Fold these 4 entries.
Entry 1:
Amino acid sequence: MADTEVDLLTIGAGGGAYPAAFRLAKAGARVVMVDPKGVMSGNCLYEGCVPSKAVRETAALYLDQEKFQHLGLPGRICPDYAAVVAHKDAVQNRRYAQHAAELAAVPDLRLIQGVARFIDAHTVQVHGERGDERFHCRHIIIASGSEVFVPPLPGAELALTSHDLYKPDPTLKNLPAHLVIIGGGYIGLETASFFAALGSQVTLLQKGGQVLQGMDPGMVDQLVPLLHPRIHLMMGVEVESLEATAAGKRIVHYRRDGMSAQIHADVVVLAVGRRPVLPEGLDGLGIVVDRHGISVGPDLRTRHPHIYACGDVNGRVPLFHAAVRQSLVAAHNILGGDVPMDYADFVNVPTTIFTLPAAASIGITPARAKAANIELVTGHYAFTEDSRAQILERMDGEIRLFFEPGSLRLVGAWVVGIDAGHLIGEIGMAIQGGLSAYDLARFADQHPMSAEGIGKAARSLF
């Protein structure tokens, strides 16, 4: 089998891969992407960000319809979950068509549906649509992503996962009366929020004492009381097994406070995390892998200077937009002759929990500052005084900005409540730009928009 010479091969075609692939192909490089799905955008579009938020925004519309029914709107519209799923599928199909058109417009870029395996540090064998092919690669980007982690729990096969909920043509197409979610990370809590808004009773079982472990406790404490009353959170729960009933229902057996108990549900969802997908043959290359994934620094290079690892597979910041930025860092460093010219920032990446309401954070927050013995000065703005929040009856939550003492340079923030996901991006730009409380206070943000609160939070210091 003769090896095909390529300048770049990406293992994966998601956010950690295709931005670099397009950048190098447009610069004249011969580029091949290899992905088992054979489509671009990875798990974000297939079973993650986009489909889950299509469900979320539809659920938010139902909540608004309930809230403003007293203004003379028709009686409450019963959610049609099958229609919600059809909308989600339509969004996914629209974006897949968009990506296919983008790919077709770049002549030196090929996407192979297949599985890649390392032969050596420069050789990759692909078992794909044309049988087996071998490539000799000047550069390689490992961007194979992550997959749902299913623990060795007796009866785990009786549960659904986020894959089953959000993939195209998903397994679940009917709204369950009672949903049990095992796991209180962002996937579990978001899913609980969506289904509760649509009408399900949701019980969320969390092993630890806090949902959203790893997030700032102050932000979590603000968020949890604002979640829909149909969500019942149970902390300190050790799930032992799942069981099916003759009627097709599910029983979750668990222990709490030393006592055994069980809970019945129509559907159980396992949401206990994700794990990196490591390419075959990687273990023969001497590349360091830890429990989070492939070990890399801000230049995204592995121990082989021509091999990069971007996105979820390195576990540094497992978010799609972080993967895109990392992919571009790798592209810039490849174009620079594998000499680091660009670096990823693993700290100042906006992170939004898309619950209803949402919460978002970035940078150095109080919990992180305390662990690093860093002092912070805090600015506050409560949405109870915000005009947009009043208009939309979403007055819960607040903006908190965190500054360096003395210089008052902005170093972090969190937002709970209205427009959190939008606001954290504007705040992130201010952090990246090195802006201070004085700079934020001077900017005339639009009225009546929730972004006014950023300047007002800064002015709370003066």
Entry 2:
Amino acid sequence: MSVATPIRVSFRPSAGRDPFFDNAKFLAITLVVSGHLVEDLRDVPVAHAAYFYVYLFHMPLFIVLSGYLSRNFTFSSGKARKLIGTLAVPYVIFELLYALPRLVLYGRLDVSLLDPYYLTWFLMSLFLWRLSTPVWQQLRWPLVIAVALSLLSGTSRLPDELSMNRTLGLLPFYVLGLMLRPEHFAWLRRRRVRIAGAVTLVAGAAVALAVHTGVRTEWIRWRHANDAIGVDDLTGSLIRLAMLAAGALLVAAFLAVTPSRRTWYSGLGTATMYAYLLHGLVVKVAERFYGDWAATPAGVAAVAASGAGLAALLCTEPVRRVTRWAVEPRMGWAFTRLRRPG
């Protein structure tokens, strides 16, 4: 990905933004895109290990950041309108857009607005999490309650509608983000903590390489109940608790090594929703062209590296101009003045 001056200037964050969070969001979306690109290559051991490792914390990272940036959410008219325009309407649009490849590739048109398909589950879950924000802000032990709900969600086969298993299973990461304060991130930027974070990430990768074949993939996807994965509720709850702890630790480590200064990709980090929603369309096409070359360690590395380039490309201004109608639709025409009881 070129880092020529025109790109840096076009995507310079506004003076009021903290580049640390934009850097973290861009690095996180790079992991998401690369993870989805190598997903179809999991028969290659190194790809399976990388996939397992990244999935332990890449979406928890996004969710923690989303929670932190949602701390001031209220039910005021402006917040409600933004919620509809940035999550609800794009969700409907991309549910329909992701139905088109299935129609072209498999001859099947299957649209269900309540049952998210592929990566649109995040929009559905974030919509519900954000609606619940005022409740979590008033509870005495919000994180404890969120963890309890997450563990309890694994004991029942919840309906696919509203992505209930993921919404409840990953809820603690959103609530954790709500509870964080600027001083917590300042602590992560201390030199000793940054060094510990780097060591933790390397150690996590080594552990993932050692255990990835012995852990069922469904644990890192948060999609199914314990019995559907083949364990009893006690065992499942302990595994889920371990996954929550591992995810939180790796998120903290990742944030610790994230640059806090302004970088060439800081501006791109302001548009990560574009990369998130659009990259799936590319992935679904690219997977059909993987050949024997991709099913090798070198091929996996090349595919993963292309994810970084794709993530950057999808965050650029030309792509944003063309696709803004879907990712950030202008919805002012749909709203009226707030109606209040007489």
Entry 3:
Amino acid sequence: MQTRKLGYSELYLTTIGLGTWAMGGGDWKFGWGPQDDMASVKAIHTALDLGINWIDTAAIYGHGHAEEVVGRAIKGIRDEVIIATKCGRVWEGDSREIGKSLKTESIKQEVEASLKRLDIETIDLYQIHWPEPDEEIEEGWAAMAQLVKEGKVRYVGVSNFNLEQLKRAQAIHPITSLQPPYSMFRREIEEEIMPYCNTNEIGIIAYSPMQAGLLTGKFTKERAMALPESDWRSKHPFFREPQLSVNLETIKRLNQIAIEENISLSQLSLAWVLRNKEMTSAIVGARNPEQIEETAKASELKLTGTNIEAIEKILDWRIKNL
């Protein structure tokens, strides 16, 4: 499987990484519905067997549960995998309420808790999950830099930062990576953020490259409308009318290109994201081994200029009809 260097770091990530958001289960505000832990562990082992060399998780996924699942899965094979996790979203005890903090003491407590749940000594890539509260960004990023000096983490990155916030953090300590949403349906980073990251040796890791499963081609209107309340997608505009019908028609047109290339729509979506040289890797979530077996193959795919042009026309149609 192909690897790309992550920003200025010495980490080489496979172009497909395994995401664990869904592995946190459905018992929290942004869950994906119920999830079997054994299926999660098998998915992680399958991903590693396929050559994927890194896992992305976060403390808030299932309020610590996803990190615990990852820790269980990598026990005995820690040296074979790069671990990335995140901080900045907090909770108290058994509370389901989610707080926001980038205070120094909060981050110190979070890193210790993540290390314990993951059962590792050092986190390879530690990321601020959201730039919130905005007024605490400088304090939080200085705390992250201190964790590098202490050896708790190897490199630090950010997620969901805008351009102005990236510049504020970069002035304090070099940013290793940015993790933004990026897919055929979410392209906000292309105009300013991608060039900035390229100039400043900041790696880019795309999350939700298949738009939370929408760009797998496996959604129908009926399935979208039947999503349980425990699945955060049931409330997202992409999965509700009036956007849903336009999105499904767009997907139908994109799928024709995938069929012509004898690949799945998931693979087409990932290859499209990875067409950018600035993109280090794309995070792919999986609930079971079968899902990661399909999407891992996208690492080797290259889209032709003709395909990219055809996709652009379809995406232009979508924007005009939303």
Entry 4:
Amino acid sequence: MPVSLPPVKRLHDILPEEPLLMMGAGPVPIPAPVAAANGIVINHLGDTMSRVLEQVKTMGRYIFQTETPWLMGVAGPGSAAMEMAVINLVSSGDRVLSVCNGFFSSRLSEMAHRVGGEVERLTVADGHSADPEQIRAAMQRFKPRVITLVQGETSNTTCNVHLPEIAKIAREHDCLVIVDAVCTLSTMPLPMDEWGIDAVITGGQKGLSCIPGISLVAFSERAWECINNRPQPVAHWTLDATLATNFWHKASYHYTAPVSGLLALHEAMRLVCDETLEARYQRHRQCSNALQGAIETLGLTLYVPEAARLNSVVGIALPESLTSAQVCQHISHHYRVEIAGSFGPPIVRIGQMGEQCRAHNLFRGLHALGSTFKDLGVKVDVPAAMAELENQLQNQRQRSL
């Protein structure tokens, strides 16, 4: 028998009448020029696309703070860019030291294992940055060819604040450095060349305030030399970086590119350049610090101690009486604000990336958060928190004048 025609609803009937304010760990709200560009389709092999790609690479070198020509996009999420970096730099039998702060850094470890790497995991406790001396000792003992780590562990809101020192130690041991900057690129400094990083990965949907499903990876000249001298070809055709140069550097065919996503990425990166990295870092730091102070004034506890705290995603410890699902469902249903649950720890997470870091979003998000905890029986001081947010933002504005 033929398959019968199913009942289908229009997208208009599925989406909420009032759009949710996206204040979770990503995706984030996108600016109007990015949304407009995402509605355009052009020839992916034409002259216009070549001009777009040249600008994306030029802007990318500024945003990644690198002179390397080996910057390219990936038609896929940040995880696809992670995989591209790993599978091109790790060959079967290579020793890989994976610094595991949580869920996403552990994903890098799993990727290295699956391509045949001999992986040693250096597990870091929640709320702590990786210790450079522990890494130095592991380097001397294990002698890895590649080290993988994250700048910011989105899952538990920890930042590897000693990344520059760790990268220096790796270079001293002739070890390639792969860094996941999916939630941190353009929200906090990551000078790829200055710190000696060999591969930096990011996704479009977080700090860059672009759409999900388009990502970027930059390889250093040293990394590219290793890719060209691999003992065997990359097993994954789509993520073969040398094949990707056909499209990204030779105006030729690799696979059909996500044209609309690349146009959206162009506009997102243009907005970063228009703002400048220095101003953008300052905006993210000021907004996140103000929000953190207001959350503590509310009467809630931040999950990670300040010394290792990630600014781009803020973790809030939950009372034993609540689950992350309860909080996320209530704030979404009653206040039309979306925040994130966790990948293990008893926390909820609020993003401070790109367009999330705007004063109007902070005030709406904080009020919704405080009201949700109050509705769910937790004693919080919403007026005091709102006043603290205003005071911190005002003080920071005055200091920057």
